[in-house]
Every structure is written in structure tokens, then in C-alpha cells.
Specification:
The chain is an alpha/beta fold. Helices cover 46% and strands 16% of the residues. The chain has 20 helices and 15 strands.
Amino acid sequence: MSLLSDILLQLFGHREFRGSQQAVIERVLSGGHSLIIMPTGMGKSLCYQLPAIVLADRSHSNREHPEPPDQLAKAPLTLVISPLIALMKDQVDALLGKGVDATFINSSLQRSERILRYQQIALGHYDLVYVTPERFRKSEFWETLAEREIVLLAVDEAHCISEWGHDFRPDYTRVGEIRHRLGNPTTIALTATATPEVQDDIIKQLNLDLKTVELFHEGIERPNLELNVKQVWDDDAKYETIVQTRKKVDGCGIVYFTLIRKLMEFSERLWVDGIPHLIYHGDLPRSRRKSLQESFMQEPGHLVLATNAFGMGVDKADIRYVLHADLPGSLESYYQEIGRAGRDGKPSQCVLLYDERDLATQMEFMNWSNPDAEFYERVHDFLKNETEKINAFGIDWLRERIHYKQKHDRRLETALAMMDRWGVIEGTLQPLKVKVTAELPEHLRDKSSLADKLKRDQSKLLTMLQYVKHQGDRKQYIHDYFGLN
């Protein structure tokens, strides 16, 4: 048995690698850069966890025959950049249970605990560390990393690095710069979905050459998933479909909603009819979200009504159905969400309930997510000149002055979040207590760039609508969209 197979069996309990896992791991260990596109639940994390273990073992072996003190090398370290705070602890706990020396650093930790972990990293402890991209804003974190040799950089959810992707995050745009400061270590970027355009942009943003990066694409074929679209005309029809699916399909399932308000309306109807279920959305306290997710993972047969806040890190094998009560905003997000069904390979249903009125909701969401340059400048001006009033009276006071009579408009939330992510403001967004620390970056003042972003979002929604109207093989439609012909 080879070393890799031995570790796979002894630590991870698998006798065989899946798909291209072994080829990816061997390339990483040889120092080659890779882009991995692999469906959720197919074992992306193994592609960097196992190499991290091997690289650490090599170092431990070398320490048995140490060099003279003046030639001692810094202890090697694998860094995993991920936006999924909730998932970090779960993955680290699983690794610790296998005897792997791993930890995470993110905003969920008290400062005293973060400092302790910094000290431990600097002293050579931990072979694998999970961090959010925001952590690289902190000078003390860089000082800690200076004491280690970064031998592997894993960029999880790599589609977040691309403005062309469906979940762009500004802090990810610095990953190329971060790679350079870390000494350009071997890099592996991983995502479940990426069009050819996004694939190229990920590599470009990482400051890598297309010729030096090997693409491992596992495809998106899931033969056990049955994809259907059902046109409905009102919420009653949606509700009836949810109830009937619950009765007919044995097992647990997820129903995705766009609006929390609509989710709660359906929840009330289910309780009136005596149908037990869980609800999950981003407005719930973090502790409540965690307990709900644990209940879903550990107990059989649950029905969950959720927004798209639910799903990242949900690795439950026996989800028998995923319904979409509303039209998703993009085919990428839709495919990720239905990909949570049937990971055990058994038949599972994926049904999108399409009401033409839902298109208007998505278009409104799109407008809220795309403030123009003038709007950003107006908000920035208010934050600079009305700081005391804003911090005293909060976001509602600011919204009245920005939106006037359009109180339902949510562009302000988008603008504040973007300014926070780009380092324009410091403080807290909930409650709103901030101060302006920088001018608007060019990205948020560039009318052409912002207009292009809106057009890309509109194009994604059009693609989603075309999927709904498609009369042929829907799996083939998805295959074509992701360039897998």
C-alpha cells in the first residue's frame, strides 16, 4: 500500500480515492499549482488536507536529524483561505479527531484566544490553519506567519475571487497579493462551480500563469438527481407542492426561499397544519443557526425551510429532495443548492417552483445589489459629514435621508457592506457605528465597471430564466453552461 493510500485508510477511513483526488494530491506534493472544480460532497477538502499531512510528516522526519542551529528551517505550514466561518470549526474538529494538528483563526474567537493561537503558530505548532481572507488585513497575523514557511496555500470557494462569479467577495481580490507576500507557495484553488470565464479569472486573480495551472474538472453529472420545473400561479400551489412532496418522499429535504418574510408565512401555514419543520435564515442569531444545522445533520427526516444562508458546510448524505419555492438568481447558485441532494447516490428530487411574479423579486434584489457610483459617493459623503448623527440615530435615520420615501430600498446595506469590505469604513454595521477611514476605491467610483457588473448579473438571471423555459434535457443545459461539452 502506498503512503497516500495508507493515510487515506488510516486517517480518513476510505479504501479508494474518488475521481481525480489522487492525481490532484500527487500534483500538489510535486509543487504544481491546480484549479479543482468538484461537486459539493465529492471530497474537495481531502485534496489539500492529505497533502498538508504529508508535508508536515516530512518536516517531522527531518527534525529527527536536525541541522546545526544556524541552518534550522522554519516549520512548514499549510494555510486554507475560506469564507465559511461556520464550517471551519467543524473541519478542524474532524481533523483533530484524526490526530492532525490543525486550528482556525477568525472573528468568532475572543481576542485572547486569537493571540494565544498566534503565539502557538509562531512557535511551530499546527500543521494546517484555516483563516478568512479578512484576517490578512491584520499586521499581527502577518508577523506570526513570518515565523513559518508556507508550503501550501489552499483557496476554498475560489469562485469568490472573481467578479464574474456568483458570490464575489472583495477580500478575495487580495489573494494574489497575499500569495506574493507568502513567497508564492504551491497553490490549490477549489470550487464546486465555475464557468470557463470564471476559471480563467480565478487563475488571473491568483497571479498565476494559465500554462502553470492544471485544471481538474470532475464535471457536474449527478445521474441520481431528477431535475424538474413546475410552473405555479400562486403561493397556494407552492404550498401544496411542498406538503405533497413531504408526504410522498421518505426522508429529509430543504425548501429554499428568497425572502425571509415569505419563508415565515409558509412556516406559519405548516404549523397550522401540524407539519413539523425547521427554519433557517441569516437574521437568526449565530448560536440558533448552529443548533438548527446540528439538528438537521444529526436527526433523520427533517424538513427545513431556508434562505440561501443554509447549505454551506451541510454535508448530509441522505437529503432526498431540494425544492426552490422562488426563482434563484443564477444557475451557479441553483446548481450548488440542488447539489446538496442525494450525495449517497440514491434517487433524489430537485424541483423548481416557478411563478412569473418571482422574476420581479429577483430583479429588485439585483438592483439592490448594484448601487451606482453616484449612490456610493452620496453615502460616503453622509458618513464623512454626518458621523455623529448617524452613530447616534442609526441606520434608519441614514436610510430616510438617502432613500427619502423609498424605505424598502436595500441599496444602503449593500453600499455599507462594500465600504466595510474595501476598508473605507471601520466599526460595526449592526448597530451602525462607523467612521470613515479612507476614500472610495476606484472600483466603487467607476461608472463603467459598476454598469458591467449589473449587466453580468442581468445575464445570469436571464440564463436562469432560460433554464426554466428549456424544453429539452435540463442536465445538458447546465452542462453546456459550464462549458463541459
